[in-house]
Design brief:
Structural class: alpha/beta
Number of strands: 35
Largest sheet: 13 strands, mixed
CATH topology of the largest domain: Spore Coat Polysaccharide Biosynthesis Protein SpsA, Chain A
Distance between the termini: 78 Å
Number of domains: 2
Bound molecules: uridine-diphosphate-N-acetylglucosamine, calcium ion
Length: 419
């Protein structure tokens, strides 16, 4: 019989070791908050019944949660067992398997979650742990086994003796439980240290003493189950996620000349046969067409849309802008809050001065126009179809250059009027 599955995500912790005023679960990896990866994982694993436990800076964290998700609140951060306890009332009428996920585990894959649940349900374990063998297990809870290889307990690093510290098999933190057995164990978990912390991991020893079996699924390496507690681990998780994102683009036919020096956020879309040269950063929400040529040293910031056959070349920054098919912006330019049409040529050193000290202003550069090198467009301006600016022109605020017209100078004056 297929068992029902519910999930509890723990996201109440403060993340002291991050040494940051931002709650840990909102730190971003490749442009996306950690918590969103975990929420997405639950969705992709096909789990509908989810409770998330929030606590530290909860109002801030709640902004990142999808509508309709069940929220439990842990006001006093008394440890992972206490956090799970806070979530249980929301699962009062639920029967089946409860999967506990930590919101600081952003790299976990849905296939692994499904494998763990299958292993758990097929064997009727009281709980099933996702474990990993690590060369350097420091920081993680260690899996203690008896002579028959049965799991007897999880010992946290803080409490481990020298012998236990040598154990290389660690608790990734992802555990599924039989709901009834979890409820019973939660009542028996006692506070640990002076800080009065209740460890969820203590449930394992309780099961063992009762004769209930705890299963385990071992995964290779830690990449997938990396727990992010510090800035160093955040940087490491970012690297792993970045490799995954780049691999996906390479598989889609994107030519990335040097993956080591290319940084692409999680939701960027890139069309086939686009080439990306080294030292390029492409951020949140960018959509890039086919056969584009990007970089080297190109920074596409948030909400940039490039059509097909666009060249966004060397030493360039584009933000919140749309660039039409076949347009060239080849050398050291800044384009911000601008709509650029098709087949436009933007000369070297062109700058859209979009910020007037108070607000960002938008400009339009229409199809076929030619912006001479070193032009400054003080936004908002409108450059008409097939219009031209001479090299070094300063096009002042609110200027409208009509179709086919050429302007030049400081400030730019009409040289040749369009028809
Ligand atoms: C935990 C495990 C450890 C495991 C490691 C894997 C326990 C006691 N230890 O340690 O065995 O190897 O994860 O990464 O579970 N949280 C709350 N409320 C609290 C405390 C924590 O919601 O009162 C949340 C945190 O936001 C976090 C998660 O629980 O998402 C884990 O807490 P954390 O303090 O990071 O545990 P670790 O020390 O990493
Ligand atoms: Ca952790």
């Amino acid at each position: 019989m297929k068992k029902s599955i519910a999930c509890i995500i723990l996201a109440a912790g403060e993340g002291t070791r991050m040494k940051s005023s931002v709650p840990k679960v909102l730190h971003t990896i490749c442009g996306r908050p950690m918590i969103s990866y975990v929420l997405d994982l639950v969705k992709r694993s096909g789990i509908k019944n989810t409770v998330i436990v929030v606590g530290h800076k909860q109002n801030y964290v709640k902004n990142y949660l999808p509508k309709g998700i069940k929220i439990a609140v842990q006001n006093k951060l008394l440890g992972t067992a206490d956090a799970v306890k806070r979530a249980m009332p929301a699962l009062k009428s639920f029967k089946g398997t409860v999967l506990v996920l930590y919101a600081d585990n952003p790299l976990l894959k849905a296939e692994t979650v499904k494998k763990l649940l299958k292993h758990h349900n097929e064997n009727n374990f009281a709980a099933t742990l996702l474990t990993a063998k690590l060369e350097d297990p420091s920081g993680y809870g260690r899996i203690v086994r008896d002579k028959c290889n049965c799991i007897t307990k999880i010992i946290e690093q803080k409490e481990a003796n020298d012998f236990e510290k040598e154990i290389k098999e660690i608790n990734t933190g992802i555990i599924c439980f039989d709901k009834n057995k979890l409820t019973a164990a939660l009542k028996l978990i006692r506070a640990h240290n002076k800080k009065k912390e209740y460890y969820l991991t203590d449930a394992v020893e309780i099961f063992y003493q009762k004769g209930d079996i705890v299963g385990a699924l071992k995964i290779k390496g830690i990449n997938e189950a990396l727990g992010v507690n510090s800035q160093g681990e955040l940087a490491r998780a970012n690297k792993v996620m970045q490799r995954r994102i780049l691999r996906k683009h390479l598989e889609n036919g994107i030519r990335i000349k040097d993956p080591q020096s290319t940084f692409i956020d999680w939701d960027v879309e890139i069309g086939q046969d686009t080439e990306i040269y080294p030292f390029t950063v492409i951020e949140r929400g960018a959509k890039i067409g086919k056969r584009c040529h990007i970089g080297p040293f190109c920074h596409l910031r948030e909400n940039v849309k490039l059509g097909n056959d666009v060249t966004a070349g060397n030493f360039l920054e584009i933000v919140r802008s749309q660039i039409g098919d076949g347009t060239f912006i080849k050398h050291f330019s800044y384009v911000g809050d601008t709509f650029v049409g098709k087949s436009v040529n933007i000369g070297a050193g062109t700058v859209t001065a979009n910020f007037d000290g108070k607000k960002k202003n938008r400009s339009i550069i229409k199809d076929g126009s030619f912006i001479g090198s070193d032009t400054v467009l003080v936004s908002p301006v409108k450059v008409g179809r097939n219009a031209r600016t001479g090299a070094g022109s300063i096009v002042t605020k609110n200027s409208v250059i009509s179709d086919g017209t050429t302007v030049a100078g400081v400030p730019a004056k009409i040289l040749k009027r369009g028809k």
